[in-house]
Amino acid sequence: MAQTILHKAETRGDADHGWLHSRHTFSFANYRDLQRMHFGALRVLNDDRVAPGMGFGTHPHDNMEIISIPLEGDLEHRDSMNNVSVIKYGDVQVMSAGTGITHSEYNKNKDRIVKFLQIWVFPKKENVTPRYDQMTLRKGDRLNKFQQILSPKADDAGVWIHQDAWFHLGHFEKDVSALYTIKKPGNGVYAFIIGGAATIDGTKLHERDGLGTWDADSISFTSNSPDTEVLLMEVPMLLP
């Protein structure tokens, strides 16, 4: 029988540093809730807003798959692998931190904030060689359907990570329904409503609400607003 956990937007951790306003779905930094440490292999889901010209100085990571999805504005990235790039709405970025990397992220714009989702996934294998990738997605490819943006395979649609995980974005008009089928037995799906409203397996969700589902073969989705954006993150529920 399917099991679910609901995280309403207003129950998330709230960290306001002036230049950075971050909402944490799961425990992060000074926000700690033992009931919200992770959802399977999904460790971090941060909803970040960075002030014009500000950002995260150079800092290290290791043994984590890190995915960034810009929602508004331009985010500049620099890392110890000599990558220098800018990601914007429509892009998805991934870093396999592996044996260790350092990087920085800054709002490239001086006149507007940048909004992005920062997501961490536990890898299925530690101490891999660090790697970086990004790609630009076609928004039209997810109109009224789920567009794959991440998988475990380098030759599949979207970017890839060292984990049996699949991410999909959807942009739906009102009253459109879709079915998402779990790709690997034992995985669960965490749905995050970026904007609008939807009903997933009978649970009504609004902007920035999250719903985790496991012990299921599929989830049913119906958009309840004319402009609903959703991110589905399928991840293993059991950690090594």
Q: What does this entry look like structurally?
A:
With 240 residues, the chain is mostly beta strands. It folds into two domains: 13-136, Jelly Rolls (Sandwich), CATH 2.60.120; 139-236, Jelly Rolls (Sandwich), CATH 2.60.120. 0% of the residues lie in helices and 55% in strands. It contains no helices and 22 strands. It has strands spanning 3-7, 13-16, 20-24, 42-50, 55-61, 65-72, 74-79, 84-88, 91-96, 101-107, 114-121, 131-136, 146-151, 159-160, 166-172, 177-181, 187-195, 197-200, 203-206, 210-214, 218-223, 228-236. It has a seven-stranded mixed β-sheet with strand order 1-20-17-22-15-13-14, with no helix packed on it. A seven-stranded antiparallel β-sheet has the order 2-3-4-11-6-9-12, with no helix packed on it. The chain is globular, with a radius of gyration of 17 Å. The two termini are 24 Å apart.
Question: TL;DR of this structure?
Answer:
The protein has 240 residues and is mainly beta. It has strands at 3-7, 13-16, 20-24, 42-50, 55-61, 65-72, 74-79, 84-88, 91-96, 101-107, 114-121, 131-136, 146-151, 159-160, 166-172, 177-181, 187-195, 197-200, 203-206, 210-214, 218-223, 228-236.
Domain module count: 2
Number of strands: 22
Poorly predicted sequence stretches spanning 5 or more consecutive residues: none
Q: Using only CA atoms, what is the Rg?
A: 17 Å
What is the strand content?
over 45%
How far apart the termini lie comes to 24 Å
Structural classification: mainly beta
CATH topology of the largest domain: Jelly Rolls
CATH superfamily of the largest domain: Jelly Rolls
SS summary, helix count: 0
| CATH architecture verdict of the largest domain | Sandwich
Strand-and-helix sequence, N→C?
EEEEEEEEEEEEEEEEEEEEEE
The residue-averaged pLDDT reads: 96
Residues in helix, %:
under 10%
Largest sheet: number of strands, sense, barrel closure: 7 strands, mixed
Can you identify the CATH class of the largest domain?
Answer: Mainly Beta
Shape: globular
